[in-house]
Amino acid sequence: MDNSHKVTEKLLALGEPAYRDFLAKLIPTVDPSTIIGIRSPIMRSLTKELTETPDAEAFLAELPHKYYEENTLHGILIERIGSYDRTIEAIDRFLPYVDNWATCDTMSPKIFKKHHAELAGKIPEWIHSDHTYTIRFGVGMRMAHFLEEDYRPDIADEVASIVSDEYYVNMMIAWFFATALAKRYDDILPVIESRRLSVWTHNKTIQKAVESYRITEDQKTYLKSLRIRRK
Question: 3-state DSSP call for residue 108?
Fold first, then answer.
C-alpha cells in the first residue's frame, strides 16, 4: 500500500454513520456516498499527526480524491505548509477540485498573515476565476486579511463587482460585506446605500449584519431601512 492510500485507510477507520448523515445535510453539493463522517476535532488531530510526514506529502500529491474527508484533510494540511510559495502552489493545484463550501472555508493558511503584499496581488486571480469555490476562496481571503490595517477602498469595489448566479459565491459576498460593515461601517455603508449588489446579496448582507453584535442598534435600524423589497 502506498503512502497516500495509508491516509485514506486511516480516514475510513474513523467514520461514524450517524455523523455522516448529519454532514450530508450540511453539504448538499457533495455525493453522500463520498462522505465518511469524521468529526472536526478528530480531523484536526489526524492532521497534526500527518504534518510534514512522507504520508502527507504523498497524499497532497494525489488528486483528485474520492472522499469528502480526503478533501477536507487536504485543505487542512495546506494550512500547515510553512512556505508561502509552496502554499500558493498547493492551493492553486487543489482549488479546481474543491466542490463544496465546507472544504473551501477550511483553508486559511497561517503563512498568509506574513505575506499580505504578495497575497494582495494573488487574490484577484482567484476572484476572477470561473470556478465557484475558487471565487469563494478569494473573497474569503479578502475578508480574513484585508478588512483592517491593510484595507483599501478598491477592495470593496473589487468584491462588489463580482457578478454570479452561484449561491455559494453570493453568500460569501454577503458574508464579506456584513463583516466589513462590522469592522469599517463608515467605509462600507456607501456600497449598501448605492445598492451595488444583487438584490438577494444586498438583503442577505443586511440580514447578516443585523445579526452581528458588533453593529450598534442605531446602525441596525438604518440598515433595515435599506432593504430592497421584491415586487
Answer: coil
CATH of span 116-231 = 1.25.40
Q: What is the pTM of this model?
A: 0.94
Determine how many CB atoms are found less than 10 A away from the CB of residue 87: 21
- How does DSSP assign 1-58, residue by residue? --HHHHHHHHHHTT--HHHHHHHHHH-TTS-GGG-----HHHHHHHHHHHTTSHHHHH
* Ramachandran bin of 37, using left for φ above 0, alpha for ψ from -120 to 50, beta for the remaining angles: left
Cell of 60: 497532497
Neighbouring CB atoms inside 10 A of 118's CB total: 12
Q: Where in the chain is the domain with CATH 1.25.40?
A: 116-231
| 100-159 per-position pLDDT tens digit | 999 999 999 999 999 999 999 999 999 999 999 999 999 999 999 999 989 998 999 999
- Grid cell in block for residue 113: 498573515
Alpha carbons 163 and 205: distance in angstroms, whole number = 15
For residues 61-71, one letter each, b for 16 or more C-beta atoms within 10 angstroms of the residue's C-beta and e for the rest, the string is eeeebebbbbb
Q: Spell out the residues 6+ positions from residue 177 whose beta carbon is closer than 8 angstroms to its own.
A: 156, 159, 160, 188, 191, 192, 197, 201, 205, 209
Inform me whether the pLDDT recorded for 3 exceeds 80.
no
